Amino acid sequence: MENLNLQWRLLPTLTLLAASLFLLVFKDSAKLSHSECSLLPYNQYWLTSKRIVTPKGVISGAVEIKEGNIISIVSEEDWPRNSKTGQVVDYGEAVIMPGLIDVHAHLDDPGRTEWEGFPSGTKAAAAGGITTLIDMPLNSDPSTISTETLKLKVDAAEKRIYVDVGFWGGLVPENAYNASALEALLNAGVLGLKSFMCPSGINDFPMTNASHIKEGLSVLARYKRPLLVHAEMEKGSERHVKLEDDTLDTRSYSTYLKTRPPSWEEAAIRELLTVAKDTRTDGPAEGAHLHIVHLSDASSSLDLLMEAKTNGDSITVETCPHYLAFSAEEIPDGDTRFKCAPPIRDAANKEKLWEALMDGHIDMLSSDHSPTVPELKLLDEGNFLKAWGGISSLQVGYI
Ligand SMILES: NC(=O)N[C@H]1NC(=O)NC1=O
C-alpha cells in the first residue's frame, strides 16, 4: 500500500505483543486499573503460557519482549530460566496468539451510530481478539463511494478507534463507469472495492451487474487491489416462496431459508466467472483480484470456485464463524438474531464448509459483523422475512 500515508492506514499488527496485551487487559479487567494492566514500563519481560500460537504450531513456552519488540519465542524446554532477565507473567492455559485481522465488518459510522459506531465496534473487536479490521463501505450513511464520503469516514474514525482500521470503498452503478472517480477513491487509500450482486438492504448502495464489475476490475488491476463481491443473484423463476403470501409462517426459519436458495449463490458465481478470467496472467485485468465474501453454499458454488482457481483466475473466498457454528435445523422459531444473507444452511452443508476450510479451499474467515438496533431485528414479532439481515459477532466470533 505504497501510497497510503494517512494516520488510519493498515498497520502491521500481527504481533504477539498486541495479543498479549489483549489477554492481559481482559484476564482480570474487573480487578486491575489501566496502569496495573500494562507491562510497558518494563524494558524487558517474558510472557509464558501452555498455549502459544506460532507458525510452527501451538507450543508451551515463553515469549521474550525487549523495548517493545518480540525478540524470541522459545519452548518450555529451551527457556533459559537461569539466565532470564526482566519480569515474567505466566498466563497458564490462556492462549497467546497474534492479533487477528478481520477483513469484513460493518461499523455503520458515520450516520447509523445507533447501530454500532467506531468506538463500540473497535472495542468489540479487541474483546474478540481482533487487532485490525477493515470497515465495509455500506450501512454507514452515506456509503463510502467517493473521496468525499471516504473523508467523512476518516473524520469519524479519528481518535475514536481502539484497534487498527482500514476501509473498503463501494463499487456501485453510479461510479462503475467513472474510472477517474474510482482512481481517486483508491488513491485516497481504500484498500479495494466491494459490490453486491443482489439488493444490499441499503438504498444508497445499489447492486452491480457483471458489466459494472468488469469495469471495476480494469481499474483495480492498475492498483493490484481486490474487488469483494456479495455473490447472491436472485433467480426469479426459482423463488420458492411468494413473499406476499400471507399464509406463510414468517416465524419459521425454514420459510426464510427457502427465499434465498443455494442456487442464488451459484448463479452469482457463474456470472462472476464470466469476468473473473480477465484477472488471469496476461488477461485485461491482470493484477486485479476477486474475493467472494461470506460463502454459505458448500456445494455447487464451492465447486465452481475451486475450478476457477485451477483455471488461473485470481480468486479467493471467505466464510464466517456463524456458518460453521450453527445449522438451520437448530434455529428456533422467531429468533431473528440468526438472520443473515446468504442464510445459514443445514448441518450437512456446515460439515462440508468445515472440510473445505480445513482442506484450504476456503481461504479465510471473516466476521461479516452487521449489527442493527433490536427494534429492526423485530425480536418480539420474530418475522424472519422482515427483520434486518445481519449477525453481530465481532466480540464472540473467534473465542
Ligand atoms: N447490508 C449488510 O450489512 N448486509 C450484510 N448482512 C448480511 O447478513 N449479509 C450481508 O451482506
Automatic annotation (TrEMBL):
All copies of domain Amidohydrolase-related, residue ranges: 95-381
GO molecular function: allantoinase activity; cobalt ion binding; zinc ion binding
InterPro entries in the cross-refs: Allantoinase, ALN_composite, Amidohydro-rel, DHOase/Allantoinase_Hydrolase, Metal-dep_hydrolase_composite, Metal_Hydrolase
Domain Allantoinase composite as annotated: residue spans: 40-94
GO biological process: allantoin catabolic process
EC number(s) given by UniProt: 3.5.2.5
Reactions catalysed, as given in the entry: (S)-allantoin + H2O = allantoate + H(+)
Residues in coiled coil: none
Recorded metabolic or biological pathway in which this protein acts: Nitrogen metabolism; (S)-allantoin degradation; allantoate from (S)-allantoin: step 1/1
Pfam families associated with the record: ALN_composite (PF24890), Amidohydro_1 (PF01979)
Necessary cofactors: Zn(2+)
Keywords: Hydrolase, Metal-binding, Zinc
UniProt enzyme class: hydrolase
NCBIfam families cross-referenced by the UniProt entry: allantoinase
Assembly notes: Homotetramer.
Function description: Catalyzes the conversion of allantoin (5-ureidohydantoin) to allantoate by hydrolytic cleavage of the five-member hydantoin ring. Catalyzes the first step of the ureide allantoin degradation followed by the sequential activity of AAH, UGLYAH and UAH which allows a complete purine breakdown without the intermediate generation of urea.
Family: Belongs to the metallo-dependent hydrolases superfamily. Allantoinase family.
Name under which the protein is recorded: allantoinase
Lineage per the UniProt record: Eukaryota, Viridiplantae, Streptophyta, Embryophyta, Tracheophyta
